[in-house]
Amino acid sequence: MMRLRLPGVLALMLLAMPVSSLPRMAAAAPAVASAITVEGNRRVESDTIRSYFKPGPTGTLDAGQVDDGLKALVQTGLFADVKIDRQGGRLIVRVVENPVIGRVAFEGNKKVKDEQLTAEVQSKPRGTLSRPMVQSDAQRIAEIYRRSGRYDVRVTPEIIEQPNNRVDLVFTIEEGVKTGVKSISFVGNNTYSAARLRDVIKTHATNWLSFLGNNDVYDPDRVEADRDLIRRFYLKNGYADVQVVAALSEYDPDQKGFLVTFQIEEGQQYRVSSVQFQSSVAALDANTLRGYSRVNVGALYNVEQLEKSVEEMQIEASRRGFAFAVVRPRGDRNLEAHTVAIVFQVDEGPRTYIERITIRGNTRTRDYVIRREFDLSEGDAYNRALVDRAERRLKNLDFFKEVKITAEPGSSSDRVVLVVNLEEKSTGDLSVSGGYSTTDGALGEVSVSERNFLGRGLYAKASVSYGQYSRGVSLSFVEPYLLDNRIALGLDVYYKQQLANSYTSYGVTTIGFSPRLGFQLREDLSLQLRYSLYRQEISLPSYYKNCNNNTANSLLAFNPTPAYIKSVLGGVDPTNSTSSGYYGWGCYGDGESSLPVRKELSDGAALTSALGYTLSYNTLDNNKNPTDGLLIDWKQDFAGVGGNVSYLKSAVDAKYYSPLVADIVGIIHLQGGMLNKIGDKDLRMLDHFQMGPSLVRGFASNGIGARDITYASLGATGDALGGTKYWGASAELQMPFWFLPKEVGLKGAVYADAGSLWGYQGPTSWAATGEVNTATCKCGLLYDDSKVVRSSVGVGLIWASPFGPLRFDYAVPLSKGKYDTVQEFRFGGGTSF
After folding, report:
1. Of the segments 27-31, 194-198, 442-446, 696-700, which one has the largest average pLDDT value?
2. Chain segment 516-546, per-residue pLDDT in tens
3. What is the C-alpha to C-alpha distance for residues 708 and 821, in angstroms, rounded to an integer?
4. 447 with 460: CB under 8 angstroms?
5. How far, in Å, CA of 238 to CA of 537, rounded?
6. What is the Cα–Cα distance from 68 to 666, expressed in whole angstroms?
7. How many of the other CB atoms lie within 10 Å of CB of 68?
């Protein structure tokens, strides 16, 4: 009988144990690769499984190789279990395959669509089921809901067994209620009120209008971004030492929402004491860049103006041939005087070139649409100011949710690669809108627009409107880069019909088109050149053109003779109460329209061909809801380049916004215009300026200026005739209602207006065929054209509603012309849904 030592017995016992039970203890005896038996596999080929066990040069497997093969098989995710046994010199690999997913379904999801969830989860139909992956998918779904503000979401994965080792994977979702921001508070804000700071940030507190948006949903990334917005706001207003120490977010289970608190250390407000320019670049005199500085001595320290100055100066230095010049601002603070001495230092930067510009994320927008926003290309000197400008331009296109340009190392130390990371968004709009105003009545409009047509950066819009007094169709198209130059080419084609209403006795039909070219001279200065060709025609209801003083009108029962007109219908000259028989009321006895209207109706349609331009200067902080800045538009149009109408029309419009105390914004509005006759062609009434509440509130549409008073002695006045000169001035204060949430969008206004319109130069007489127009019976025009200053004071209610901008005004005229038309209450607005 053979005697076995204890170590030998232990070795035999270990050989009999599965390798998976002792992953680090493999059989001592080596195995040949061909002696591997695979059991339990149905879909995965045996040779595929054997390939994970790679023998050494001798063709045998040692303990480490077996262990590595076991781990590799487990990591494939194809198997629910893997075990390794040895029987003699044979290695047996027993596997239990993971089931195949038949379908992936979602139940209980109402706020997030199946398509979005399917794109996010990694478990896919016809793929292998992996339980760790299923748990990861459940967490990913929950994260999607949390990002949309639903922190009470519950996601439960369920695996339903099916025949043939297949399963259905179902994610059951309990969405919960939206977790919003219940309150936003500020600590340490001594200068600006909480209401003013809430206007700065993007996060809003939940209120009764929150269902229209999602800014009240708690988003930690947005709250963090709000910290920077608050900091930038203070830096813009002179607080150079400001710090937004923290943005604390605390979930309140009682209110079921977050309480957000911003902790601020304002510091002191600084003004600019001096501005100096220094240069270490021998050939560049820094003082020659002074004209590009927007920082002025005595002004509040403004970091935005400082940054714009640096950008403009650095770009100008690059244009002069100093491609690597870097402008660095330095501020020396005087803590006692609360002033900052600004020094712009120009130095030679590192000689770095752009090796490549890589664009990522543009699935729809063409590459060239993105590249043309850069003022540099491959091989140019790297200029951070130009890169920042390109990033800002790409954001302003409004084609992308996110734009980020980063510089990565190139193939050598003097090369960089610019990586443009983009996330596209929808750029098409289908809008159905409606509104009502006291001037135009009810109005509805349907429009379709696309800001990035065909992914080429083109703008296209088509709209149809139909209303009580106004109807029309318009088509617009804009190519922002004509022939690869930063010149915008636009084309408008339109048809508009303005019907007679309580303010005008006539209707006007206009059809035309207008091509235009736009040039961005500077970021705050633009020029537009345009050509307009349009046809205008007046229409009148029959009861407004039924002149009884017409000898050819034999069908009328009442056809007065000149003697009857003079003796019976003669009337009294309103300018001379002792006269009689001066004006023949036979022309107006039953309410005919004014002479200029009927004359232009008789003349037929007018064709206007005009060249014009608009020069705009814009420094507004926000074009939609400005609180600071200046906007000036200077326009001129010259008609007479063909057509049968000629004139020169000039107009200027200036608006200045300035923030005052306690969130009050002051607005000064100045405007004026002049119409000049060109050549021997008379001015038409339709070419005159027509003014009303756009000049002085408290007056009706076309309620100001020259007016037909031919039959004023009968107690009525005729149509507004307009004027060739006007001026207007307005002062307004706008303030929010502090007792209402900011998201309600209500503001109040108080204002005072003054202005005047005068200088009618249209037709005043008309010797039409068949009409009596003798020395004793003048069917002419008598009109009032006084230069009286119209003025008013009033209050307004402004609502940036979810249905569109609405404004209500009540103004009381303080001074007016004798025949002006007053309208104290005015309302206008629209909707989009």
Report:
1. 696-700
2. 999 989 878 999 999 999 999 998 877 666 5
3. 12
4. no
5. 57
6. 76
7. 15
* 576: enclosing H helix or E strand: none
* CA pair distance 693, 825, nearest whole angstrom: 10
User: How many angstroms separate the CA atoms of 351 and 383, rounded?
Assistant: 10
- What does the buried/exposed string (b/e) look like for 252-290 if buried means 16 or more CB atoms within 10 Å of the residue's CB? eeeeebbbbebbbebeebbebbebebebebeebebeebe
Residue 588: exposed, middle, or buried by beta-carbon count in 10 A (0-12, 13-18, 19+)?
buried
> What does the alpha-carbon distance between residue 819 and residue 718 come to, in Å, rounded to a whole number?
10
The residue that leads in pLDDT, 775 or 292, is 292
- Name the average pLDDT for the chain: 82
Scored b (16 or more CB within 10 A) or e, 779-793 reads bbbbbbbeeeebbbe
> 5: how many CB neighbours lie within 10 A of its CB?
8
Q: HSE of 37 in the Cβ direction (CA atoms, 13 Å)?
A: 9
What helix, strand, coil percent values describe the chain, rounded to 5? 20, 45, 40
Residue showing tokens 């065929």: 769
Using CA atoms, how far apart are residues 303 and 798, in angstroms rounded to an integer? Answer: 31
Determine phi and psi for 359, rounding to 5 degrees. Answer: -115, 130
CA proximity to 203, closest of 214, 194, 195, 190: 214
Q: Which parts of 16-130 fold into alpha helices (H)?
A: 46-50, 63-75, 114-120
Handedness of CA 780, 782, 787, 789 (dihedral sign): negative
Let me know: does 9 contact 80? Beta carbons within 8 Å: no
User: What SS3 state is found at 136?
Assistant: helix
Single pTM value for the model: 0.67
Q: Are 678 and 638 in contact (CB under 8 A)?
A: yes
Interval 507-520 mean pLDDT: 95
CA 496 to each of CA 467, 499, 602, 639: distance values in angstroms, whole numbers, following the listed order: 11, 10, 21, 20
Rounded Cα–Cα distance for residues 762 and 722 (Å): 9
Closest CA to 32 of 73, 7, 62: 62
Residue 630, exposed/middle/buried by CB under 10 A (0-12, 13-18, 19+)?
A: middle
Classify residue 624 by burial, with Cβ atoms within 10 Å: 0-12, 13-18, 19+. exposed
Bridge partner residues of 805 (DSSP): 800
The two three-digit tokens of residue 465, written as one number: 């409107």
> Could you read off the pLDDT of 262-283 as tens digits, one per residue?
999 999 999 999 999 999 998 8
Quick one: which H or E segment has residue 711? none
| CB-count burial class (<10 Å; 0-12, 13-18, 19+) for 21 | exposed
Token pair in block for residue 624: 């939609």
pLDDT tens, residue by residue, 158-204:
989 888 888 899 999 988 777 888 889 999 999 888 888 888 898 88
DSSP string, 378-414: TTSBP-HHHHHHHHHHHHHTT-EEEEEEEEEE-SSTT
Structure tokens at 680: 């021997």
CB-based contact 793:754 (threshold 8 Å)? no
Tokens 């309410």: give the residue: 591
Closest CA to 316 of 343, 296, 277, 286: 286
Contact criterion met (CB below 8 Å) for 696 and 627: no
Structure tokens at 508: 């006007």
Task: Give, in degrees to the nearest 5, the angle at Cα 150 between 145 and 154.
Answer: 70
- The token pair that represents 514 in the structure block: 């207008």
